[in-house]
Predict the structure.
Amino acid sequence: MGGRSVSAHLRTALGLAVAGVPPLPLRAGKVPFGNCPACAKNVCGGRPNMKTPGPCVCPKPCHGWAAATTDPIVIDSPAWVRAWREAAGVAYHPGGAGLTVVDLDNRAAIAWARASLPATRTVPTTRGEHWLYRGAMQGANNVRPGVDIKSTMSYTRWLGPGTGTMTALPDVVRALTDKELPPARPASVTVPTPAGGGDCPHRTPTYLDRGIAMAEQQITDAREAVHATVYRTFLAVLSKHGRCGCLTETHTARLFTAAQAKGETVRHCTEAWTNALTTLGLTHG
């Protein structure tokens, strides 16, 4: 693409970042840039964004929606400028801005929305409309014919600010998916005990319970980079409590539930937990 397109994409992305909306470059076909070889299949542990520290320090816009950031230094960095040069447009992470987009893909879906949802800001798309609400929820596709939910852990194209007054995310939208907060299922992930056993350094159960409560609160308080926060929190818990065999399924269920309340899926929780175990050398040999 020419320099004019690169400049236009950069201006749009930087403007979104100033407004607190995390952008990312979008390739032709409305898809994010693929992971670089070092990040392929998330072997690096994931990189929610370069604004906060995490297990991956790749300077490229890897990891799809999780690459979205409001850091202007990252957006205008050489690696991102190269991506903007190839980009077909700008996308953003609605959940990272505390928003939910109801993506209506055809006339029938728009008619349903007008009859069923409270009025809010709308943005015209190629085939339909985006309805924007304040508040985040787990993104989901095909919640009904022609309707997708773009919010946490998803991305959507930036097509302009739209028209109308944005209203709060209604329960009727949240009810479109009963998978928003699936039950925690950490039983398949176990915390190994030290090979040789050993005394527990925690002295009282209260010490461990306080640590779990603090970890839950840290995840709950995350305002962005949730994936990185979950991984770092799991890593911290396992680093302190994972070698003596004190952690139980009840403890891991509490952590998974806190993570899922922020939009993480069971799969993402399990991956983060497993990556933390591997990093600390706590996996079974």
